[in-house]
Amino acid sequence: MTVSSASKHYATRSGTVHALDRVSLQVREGEFLCILGPSGCGKSTLLWSMAGLHSLSNGEIRLGSDKIEKPHPEIAMIFQEANLLPWRNLENNIALPFELKRTRPDKARIAKLLQRVGLAGFEHKFPRELSGGMQQRASIVRSLAVNPSVLLMDEPFGALDAFTRDEMNLLIQEIWMETGKTIIFITHSIAEALFLADRIVVMSARPGRIQEIVDVDFPRPRPVSIQSTPEFIARVNDIKAMIDHRKA
Ligand SMILES: Nc1ncnc2c1ncn2[C@@H]1O[C@H](COP(=O)(O)OP(=O)(O)OP(=O)(O)O)[C@@H](O)[C@H]1O
């Protein structure tokens, strides 16, 4: 995916908000890219534009030769909230993207994915009967069921408790290693970005710009315990200093 000089202004009652300023980025096929930055730096604006859910004021985003101006079948998005429909059971929630595309749900693929994320046997449960982590796993299945090549994740685990978040980070790492999908993942957490990413895009606050792109080369699979190693902590501090320095 290629982002070329993407800028976004929002017109509000109190004036124009300059949310993104000439952001250019080449996302490599199959990479795990994390976007890290303070609240309000335009991370969601950038991701939503990549999903074709927001239009840019200037610049363009492409997947291969396709210009992204509306949702694209190869690009799926996962939000902070699982956004399952409360009146549908899991199976019918996962079937929704197929219904929208007027195609038949790929039952074999869905069963495999449910098994993969530990939700086999829960097909007939309703969202209220599931924990937050389980709901988010279901939303991952819903996104992967249509087999997109790019998965956009907007702080998907931000609302979960620390243990569930660790579990979900391990799961998404495994899924990424197994499927080779391109994942673009927004987070506020330096540790989460370092745990997951091949590269971290550090953004600066308004107007949102790319401050720095950091390569992360810890070998995979990365265990949760890597986060307490001196090397990991040193990298967290490096990025923290980069962000603090920018504020000064
Ligand atoms: N629809 C909108 N109308 C007006 N201003 C908006 C709109 N959406 C976002 N903004 C503003 O644009 C800026 C960037 O917002 P955005 O949500 O992209 O940032 P973010 O980095 O994702 O923030 P957070 O981490 O808090 O979710 C913010 O100042 C926000 O208030």
Automatic annotation (TrEMBL):
Show the GO MF annotations.
ATP binding; ATP hydrolysis activity
Q: Which PROSITE patterns match?
A: ABC_TRANSPORTER_1, ABC_TRANSPORTER_2
Superkingdom: Bacteria
Domain ABC transporter residue range list: 1-226
UniProt name for this protein: ABC transporter ATP-binding protein
**Stored InterPro entries:** AAA+_ATPase, ABC_transporter-like_ATP-bd, ABC_transporter-like_CS, ABC_transporter_ATP-bind, P-loop_NTPase
UniProt keywords, alphabetically = ATP-binding, Nucleotide-binding, Transport
Question: Which family would the database say this protein is a member of?
Answer: Belongs to the ABC transporter superfamily.
